[in-house]
Each structure stands twice: as structure tokens, then as C-alpha cells.
Give the backbone structure.
Amino acid sequence: MEQKRRVNTKWIVAAVILVLAAALLLWGYLFVKNTRLENITVEGNHHYSKDELLELIFPEPEDRLTVNVWLREYRGEHQTIPFVSRYEITLDDLNTAHIMVYEKHVIACLEYMGSIMYFDKDGIVVESEDENNEGVPEITGIDFSRIVMHQPIAVKNQEVFTAILNLTQLLSLYELDVERVYYNDDLEARLYMDGLKVELGNSKYMDEKIMELKSILPSIAGQSGTLYLDSFDPDAINPHYRFMPEKN
């Protein structure tokens, strides 16, 4: 009888342990299943705001569940986002994550067959959209023979593209907000920026012209008209460049 009682006790203890283990597993499952990212920091984003990026990275409510984020990161499964080369998600704890964004660095764009094509400093087309994004200068006045995604823009005269890349990189370097760059048949450039037209002329002394433009802009801020830097003279001691205000 005593032996039978010991056997029954063992079964009861085993059953209790199994029930507790099952309850613990269920609690853990429900905890993990319902734990989501609430605190997210984003770094490296310029093209998109934080909220825009979070909408693109986590398009569905369940995408923010911590277990789903971990699984996607482990498998390397990321959303494809225009203007973003890649991003990395680091989990600090079950509710907190840090997202490092690596954007495609576009310097200018142009219209081709109804689409806006964006290219980088090497002249490679990295993205296309239906409309131009604010802050990216559009190149006009030049016909391009062929434009293919993820390939260099094809031009008949390489001098044309060298001039474009040099100018757009200078605009980026000096942080000048230019809406449009127009080139005429002689490869003379004109900038359109916030009500101003800036005649730059040919590519000679372009670095110095853009530097001069940067220093002149504060004195004509808020005005509309045309600034003539095509007469730039590197040897001038006290240069003065003509500014023609726009007539009302």
C-alpha cells in the first residue's frame, strides 16, 4: 500500500510540474507574441522623416512585434525603400530598438520618358519617381540618348556630363538649395533658386563662382532677379557682379 501511495505521489508531482511548465510556456508565448517595439530611434535619415521611415519599415501593425523584428533581422529580410540603400535594426531590449539608415546619395535628377531619374556622384541612376523631390536640383536643357536604372547615364559628349557632375557636387558641398539647372547649347549654366536666376556661364572657374555665389546670397536674400556670375574674374581685387532685380 505504501509503495502504491509513493507511485501516486510521483504521478501527481509529475502532473503538477507538467501543468506548471505548460502554463509557463503559454505565458512566455503570449508575452513574446504581444511584446512590441514602443521606443525606436532612427539615425542616418535625411530624405525621409522618422515617421515616414517607420511607416515604410513597419507597414503592418504586426511588423512591430519584437519577435517578428528579430526574425526578419536574423533572416536579413528588409523592406525595399526608395532612396535607401540598406538599414540595420538593433534591439536594445524587448521594447526598444535603434535603426541605422544608409541612404543613396543623390546629387541631381532629370526627366526622362515621363519619370524623374535620380543619379549619384558617379552619374549612376539610383532611383526613379513620378515627381521631383524637394531639395534635389533638376537638370534641364540637355538631351540624353539613353537612361537605364543602376547604370551610368549615357551621353554622346562626356564633357557634358563632367560639367554637370562637377556643378551638382559643388552645389551639394556648399549646401545651396537649387531647384533647377539649365544648360544651353554652349554648356553655359543657369541656376534657378528661390526666385533667383544665376547666370554661371561656362564651366571655367566653376568652383570659384559657386563660392562667390555662397557669399553673395545673404545680401540679396528675399529678392527676385538675375545675378550675373558669368563675368567672373579670378584676378579682380574688389569684384562686383551685376544683380538685376525683377520688375514688378
